[in-house]
Specification:
Helices cover 0% and strands 42% of the residues. The strands form four sheets. Strands 1-6-3-4-5-2 form a six-stranded antiparallel beta sheet, with no helix packed on it. A six-stranded mixed beta sheet has the order 11-13-15-18-19-17, with no helix packed on it.
Length: 274
């Protein structure tokens, strides 16, 4: 089954009434049958059907049925202004068409130049173009001359590590799901690991003390390393129910002072005792 649009396909039908499936009785002079145009069973297409009275018509989407039949699946528009199948009388004609509201066209006042990126002008299916928005296929780069704004739909992903022990309590923060993570520290020697971080991705981690407070967390994670500002590893707030906020930028490749480390991040303290 496939969606197909073919040129010069037009057949007659003697089926009357509002039946969904109509019989195809052959091509009109100078046109092709659906089968002759390469349609197979269940191939779909847009169609126009004109009743034998010459005044009733419908435009819709349907599919070809082997043994020379056609199924009127959904009506997009008709002569009655409704979404119902029209009642056919006499010898009617059905042909492939492309409904006007299903077309995509270029706005004549915004013809794109080479490598220009087409954008939707509005909801009338016309494509526009802005010369400040250009795709360079040579180096796979999108050029934007002006301000850019990225709205993230990531949410606050909450993870709670439990228990005590020497670096045995681990909270793995999935950065494919969120850029903002809140971790409640409920045990000493907890530690946080980041996963799914892309190079250049910015991640914010909020570390909250539980109702006991004075929880300690290790920043040393096997295979993941943090390059803190001034090489100073920050300490945590010890006050109960208070939060420290840290930011990380994922970096790929080897950093000169950390040549033996495979995954590393630039780390920053945003605020403490919040």
């Amino acid at each position: 089954m496939a969606f197909k649009l073919e040129d010069r396909v037009k057949e007659t039908t003697t089926t009357t009434g509002t039946s969904q499936v109509i019989a195809l009785t052959g091509a009109e002079s100078g046109f092709l049958t659906f089968a002759g145009a390469g349609f197979s069973d269940n191939d779909t297409t847009y169609y126009t059907l004109v009743s034998g009275n010459g005044s009733d018509w419908e435009v819709g989407i349907g599919h070809y049925v082997a043994a020379n039949q056609f199924s009127r699946n959904a009506v997009i528009a008709n002569s009655a202004g409704s979404g119902d199948r029209v009642s056919l009388t006499g010898a009617s004609s059905i042909f492939i068409t492309h409904p006007a509201d299903k077309t995509v066209h270029v706005d004549p006042s915004h013809y794109p130049s080479e490598s220009g990126v087409a954008i939707w002008n509005d909801n009338n299916a016309s494509l526009g173009y802005d010369s400040k928005f250009v795709w360079s296929s040579g180096n796979a780069t999108l050029h934007v001359d002006g301000k850019t704004r990225i709205k993230s739909h990531y949410g606050d992903h909450l993870t709670t590590p439990l228990g005590d022990g020497a670096n045995t309590t681990r909270a793995t923060l999935d950065c494919d799901l969120a850029n903002l993570h809140t971790v409640e520290l409920t045990g000493d020697s907890s530690y946080v690991a980041l996963s799914g971080v892309d190079a250049g991705q910015k991640v914010v981690v909020r570390l909250k003390q539980d109702s006991s407070g004075s929880r300690v967390m290790s920043w040393t994670i096997t295979g993941q390393n943090i390059n803190w500002v001034n090489d100073a590893t920050p300490s945590l707030t010890t006050t109960v129910n208070k939060t420290d906020v840290f930011a990380f930028i994922g970096v790929s490749g080897s950093f000169p002072s950390h040549a033996d480390k495979h995954t590393w991040y630039d780390g920053y303290t945003i605020g403490k005792n919040i």
